[in-house]
Structures are given as C-alpha cells and as structure tokens.
Write a structure and sequence with these properties.
Belongs to the thiolase-like superfamily. FabH family. The chain is an alpha/beta fold. It has helices at about 30-35, 45-50, 65-80, 105-110, 125-140, 165, 215-235, 255-265, 280, 290-300; strands spanning about 15-25, 30, 55, 90, 115-120, 145-155, 170-180, 190-195, 200-205, 210, 245-250, 275, 305-315, 320-325. The strands form four sheets. A five-stranded mixed beta sheet has the order 1-7-6-4-5, sandwiched between helices. It has a five-stranded mixed beta sheet with strand order 8-14-13-11-12, sandwiched between helices. A two-stranded antiparallel sheet has the order 2-3. The radius of gyration is 19 Å and the shape is globular. Bound molecules: oxa(dethia)-CoA.
C-alpha cells in the first residue's frame, strides 16, 4: 500500500471517426509537355512509367503553410466543426523549409484555432496515416476531443528541377481530416512500421534535394505494402471484400495498381474503387491520401459510409495504413 494519490484520467471514447475532409492545390497546372520543354522527358514515358498526366506546382510566394490553412479550413467546414472546438492540430509534412517554428502552430493560429496542442509529424509519404492513427488514439484516450490532421507539402522546393526522375513525379498540395469521438469505432487501429535498414533508398542530398533509388523503392513498395494494408484490415476485424475504396499513397500508378491487384488476389472485390489521383495531382507525399479521397468524394466515386483502406509509404523507409469510414 502507498499513500500516493491515485491519478485520474480524461474520459475517452469507445471509438473515433473522420468527421470531414478538405483539400487544396495551387492553381498552376504543369503538363508533361510543359516539363519536356525544360528537361529530357516526354509525355509517353511519364504516362506509361508513372501514370501522371499533369500536376500542380506552387508559385515561389505560395507556401506549404498557405496550402495547409486552406485544406484545414475546408475540412472543418465539411465537418461542420467550428475552429474553436479543435484542441489539437497535427501537421504531417517533410518539406517545411525550416524546422522551427513548426507549421502546425502557425497554421492553427491562421485558421483561428485558439491555443491547440500543435505539432508537425514527419513520416514522409506515410505521414498522413501516422497522423490519423495518432489523432484517433488521442481522441479515444480522452487526450483530445477534436483533432485536425493536415498533410501538406511544397515538394517543388525540395526537388532538383534538372533531376528528371524526381522532377516529373513530385508536386504540391494539401489534404486534411477532422477526427472526433464516436460510440461506434469508425477508424481502425493503425498498422505501422519502418524498415530503417533501407534508410539509404530515399533521402536528401547536401543541396537539400530529394534523391531516391527509384527501382529499389518501387520493388519494395510493390511487394511489401499490400501485406501492411492486409494487416490494417485484420486488426480492424475486416476482410479485403469489405473494402469499398482503396487509397494507397499516390507515388506511382503502377505501384497503386500492384497493391490493388494483390488485395484482389486476397479477396477484395473487382468493383473496389482504387484511387488514381496521381494522374492529375502527381505525388504530393503526406498530402496524397487525403487529397485523393477528397477528390473522389467530390467526384462521387467515394461515398459517405464507404469502408476506406488507406496505406502510405516512403522515406524512412516508413509505412502505415488503416481502415476507416468515409465521412
Ligand atoms: O513517394 C515516396 C516513395 N517513392 C516511390 O514509391 C517511387 C518508386 N519508384 C518509382 O516510381 C520509379 O522508380 C521512378 C518513377 C522514380 C523512376 O522510374 P523507373 O522506371 O524506375 O526509371 P529509372 O530511373 O530506372 O530509369 C529508367 C530509364 C533510364 O534510361 P536508361 O538508362 O534505361 O536508358 C532513365 O534515364 O528511364 C530514363 N528516365 C527517363 N526518361 C524519360 C528516367 N526518368 C526519365 C524521364 N523521362 N523523366
């Protein structure tokens, strides 16, 4: 026995759910033909090897934090949540030009969220799924009531414009989700991990440009990510046949198709809708999953109540996925 006082905990909730989604892209559209004027590439190579038709590039004076504010506001509006109700802001990204001040606190202030817990999270292209997992568990544990998760990137600042393998892939944008409590769990447990032994496959050069050993990353993603997605279903008590919408990180359309093929070989339905937002958005790293799902909802290919399976993967190498119900 001890006379130490017992600690009390915040009341949590049985489950959590995504209350709303929002996204933002800069206006400037860059086609493959535009790129072929400034580097040795062509539309046929890009479409057949990567699946991109066009992407959005920010202007010099448009910042990652600007995209995040716009996507965050849109998600709050979609959720019908007032900024004053949000107590936590998580901002997955890997392209903030400076490490301090963090993006989350600045973005929260600009949206009008009063004094939230605010932090950036870097798990590269897996960042949104990491952030969603943390948000869900904060809500369930009672540490937060409403969490705004915003994946935002300005990758054009981090790509050498003469590096044709990367300059054609990466693009700019943001996607956001609002997470709150729910009696019935509507966000499954996150299935996450990292392969630090493969750390050298993606990184930054001394000039602070992204490099990747493309083919090795491609092989890893096409073989190792479908099992992570399957594990996310298993821990949520779901089967591949339950998935209505598959949203893999939009790294390369051939990787997306390989993941979908593996899931279908394991029981996912032919009619399962598969995100192909990379065609018109490029690879926006931690923004790509919420950006793709928001676009799919607007296009009517993903509907409220659908079972979504998201899986992100990238530098680290890091990966994470979870199942959740589409708001
Ligand atoms: O988001 C984070 C995770 N990242 C990924 O998941 C990316 C995974 N990797 C990939 O998606 C692909 O590896 C890339 C898109 C990055 C590159 O595609 P690849 O098919 O692996 O091309 P490669 O770099 O191996 O190059 C193949 C050929 C080379 O020519 P040779 O040496 O065979 O004559 C390249 O010089 O394609 C050439 N090439 C290009 N040609 C026209 C490379 N980039 C281009 C280009 N346009 N933009």
């Amino acid at each position: 026995m001890t006379d130490r006082p017992a600690l009390s905990l915040n009341p949590g909730s049985r489950g959590s759910r995504v209350l709303g989604l929002g996204s933002f892209q800069p206006e400037k559209v860059v086609t493959n033909d535009d790129l072929s004027k400034v580097m040795d590439t062509n539309d046929e190579w890009i479409q057949s090897r990567v699946g991109i038709v066009e992407r959005r590039f920010a202007e010099k004076d448009e910042l990652l934090t600007d995209f995040a504010v716009a996507a965050g506001k849109a998600a709050l509006e979609d959720a019908g949540v007032d900024p004053s109700e949000v107590d936590t802001v998580i901002l997955p990204n890997c392209t903030m030009p400076t490490l301090i001040p963090n993006a989350a606190a600045q973005v929260a202030a600009r949206i009008g969220i009063p004094n939230p817990g605010a932090f950036d999270l870097n798990a590269a292209c897996a960042g949104f799924c990491y952030g969603l997992g943390v948000a869900s568990d904060l809500v369930r544990a009672g540490s937060a009531k409403k969490v705004l998760v915003i994946g935002a990137e300005k990758l054009t600042d981090s790509v050498n414009p003469t590096d044709r393998a990367n300059a054609i892939i990466f693009a700019d944008g943001a996607g956001a989700a609002v997470v709150g409590a729910s009696d019935e769990p509507q966000i499954g447990p996150v299935s996450w991990g990292s392969a630090g032994d493969l750390v050298d496959l993606i990184g930054m050069t001394e000039e602070k440009f992204i490099y990747q050993e493309g083919q090795s990353v491609f092989r890893w993603a096409t073989t190792q990510i479908a099992p992570i997605a399957m594990r996310a279903l298993e821990v949520a008590g779901l089967k591949p046949s339950d998935v209505d919408v598959l949203v893999p990180h939009q790294a390369n359309l051939r990787i997306v198709e390989a993941i979908a093929k593996k899931l279908r070989a394991n029981g996912a339905r032919e009619e399962m809708v598969v995100a192909d937002d990379i065609k018109y958005s490029g690879n926006t790293s931690s923004a790509s999953i919420p950006l793709a799902l928001d676009h799919m909802r607007k296009a009517g290919t993903a509907k409220s109540g659908d079972v979504v399976l998201a899986v992100g993967f990238g530098a680290g190498l890091s990966y994470a996925g979870q199942a959740f119900v589409c708001p």
